[in-house]
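Predict both folds.
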Amino acid sequence: MNPAALTPQRIVCLTEETTEWLYLLGQEQRIVGISGYTVRPRRAREEKPKVSAFLSAKIDKILALKPDCVFGFSDLQADIASLLIKAGVQVTVFNQRSVDEIFSVLYQVAAMVGQAEQGLAQLSRIRAELDAIAQKAAGFKRRPRVYFEEWDEPHMSTIRWVSELMGIAGGDDIFPELALQSMGRDRIIASGQTIVDRAPDIIIGSLCGKKFRPEKVAARPGWQDVPAVRTGQIFEIKSADILQPGPAALTDGVTQMHRIFSQWEALHG
């Protein structure tokens, strides 16, 4: 029996991270539909039909593609998954929130397409790169206190994997208790004064669907004495690089944070 024949051949990816991972595994020929928010890899937007947003999907278009598997992410896509399952489609929805869970999901996806060995090799390389970053950060004489803003109106602190990657990169999340909350609504910060009171040394913003504007943060009433505002330490990391629970966050996202923290530490350590 040919084991390749037992793996899904026509896959729809409702979020970016599985698309990027399948491309990295050299399995992009299996992908027949992607999320409209996909930007990694760039060529995917040119090669694959866009069949979904994050909270909605073109069910008829997905069904017309005759997928034998659909990959989704989080409870927020439960309604999409339900419609597809009722239509007889196999759906696998992952719900990873931590760095370890991201590694686990990526290995599972690799195994599902018959690439467990290659997937494990790539994940081992990524883990080694994270360990190298953590080792460099361990040499910091002083670690910056960081506010990572995932949304601005209302203020929302970031999700667990970003908080964990922040720690690996050499920074300390000023809202570690909120990072443990899986739902965005539970990470809302009711008063901006709470952020001001925690006095972050660095502010990083990453907003899905719109650009983060450091100048607008600096102009917020009462924020002028926040260390990050006073010293101009306000940065954007593109959401595609850090808010997708997949390869991007584990590589480019954490590297960008480490670069920001290293530059700050060189001045303040």
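Second protein follows, with its predicted structure tokens after the sequence.
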Amino acid sequence: MTGRCERAILIPSSLTMESRDTRVNTLKVGQIARAAAVFRVSRIVIYRDQEYNDSRFISMILRYMETPQYLRKLLIPRKEELRHVGMLPPLRTSHHPINSKSESLKIGEFRVGAVVESVGSDGGVWVEIGINRPIPLRTGEKYPVGQRLNVRIFSQEPLAAEPVDQKDIPHYWGYETEVVDSLESYLESMRDTRIVLASRSGRAITPQVKNQ
């Protein structure tokens, strides 16, 4: 991310160990997703805990939450683990727009899209961006159907978009989810990064107010 501070949080794969209720665990992971969006976290890292490894479920819920609502049916297959996600509220971030009218789109507006049609040797591509119809993508590349990508509206008449790199989007654009083998190995790879660790046995970093 150019010119911006990248924030990452690390959570253990044993996060859901206390309950076997999928509904309760879905809510717990959903709260983490919402907090990450509020504090503009760009990466959520799940490190495997030898005691209990529920990284598959946790990452599945996090990725579902981060995906714009209009793309979830296209990009996320129906799975038993996702049966309670309907009770999770949307993130309400910039990449989760509520406007679905094509005439309201502005030149320069960014959207998350998914390829719904890719035809011809010239790389003709149509993307779903959450409006009443797919729109053409101006690109020299051929993207496979189902690929997620970021786009920018560059024309209104006719309506069309072009692919953009996420680093060129000037505002918060969600988080990525990653699963790593262990906390120790990940921290070792981040030696030059400022890290804050939380523990039940740690000391509070906020000032303690003494009773008068």
